[in-house]
Structures are given as structure tokens and as C-alpha cells.
Amino acid sequence: MGILAWIVLGLIAGAIAKAIYPGHQGGGILATMGLGILGALLGGYLGGLLFGTTAGATAATLSIPSIIFAIIGAMILIFLWGLFTRRAA
Fold first, then answer.
1. pTM of the model
2. Domain residues for 58?
3. Shortest CA distance to 20 belongs to which of 31, 4, 36, 1?
4. What percentage of the chain has pLDDT greater than the value 70?
5. How many domains does the chain have?
6. 29-47: per-residue pLDDT in tens?
7. What's the confidence (pLDDT) of residue 89?
8. How far apart are CA 51 and CA 86, in angstroms?
9. Could you write out the three-class secondary structure of 6-58?
């Protein structure tokens, strides 16, 4: 159930982050899911470092704090992805 929860959280976080983040980002559903899952991991890690909590790191509950941390992490990754793809183009 853990991997399925990370995939669901990644889809939710990636879709919300792409909707919130200004501008046009390339990539389809797999890129959204990948950025969302990696963003969930990054957001959980950063939430643990900044707040000393594991609320962002636990995706098995799909709680509001875990979704917020995942969205923030996904937005950071979308920003970094935009920086790397603009330099290559």
C-alpha cells in the first residue's frame, strides 16, 4: 500500500503544483507523476528538517500536511526543471 500511496500523492501534488506554478511546463502525465513523487520526497525531507516533524514524510496517510509539503517540493522541482531545460534549449 505504501508505493500506491506515494503514486497517488505524487499525482495529486504534481497536478496541483503544475496548476499553481505560473507559465507553461512541458511533460505529460508521467513527468507530472515523477515530479510529484520526487516533490513529495523532497517536501517531506525539507519539512522534517525545518519543522522537526515527519508529517510531510508520511504519504501513507495522505493527510493535508503531507499534501502541502509534497506540493511545495513539486513546485521546487518544477522550478529547477525549468532552469535546466531552458539552458539546454
1. 0.73
2. 2-19+28-88
3. 36
4. 71
5. 1
6. 677 778 778 887 887 777 7
7. 47
8. 33
9. HHHHHHHHHHHHHHHCCCCCCCCHHHHHHHHHHHHHHHHHHHHHHHCCCCCCC
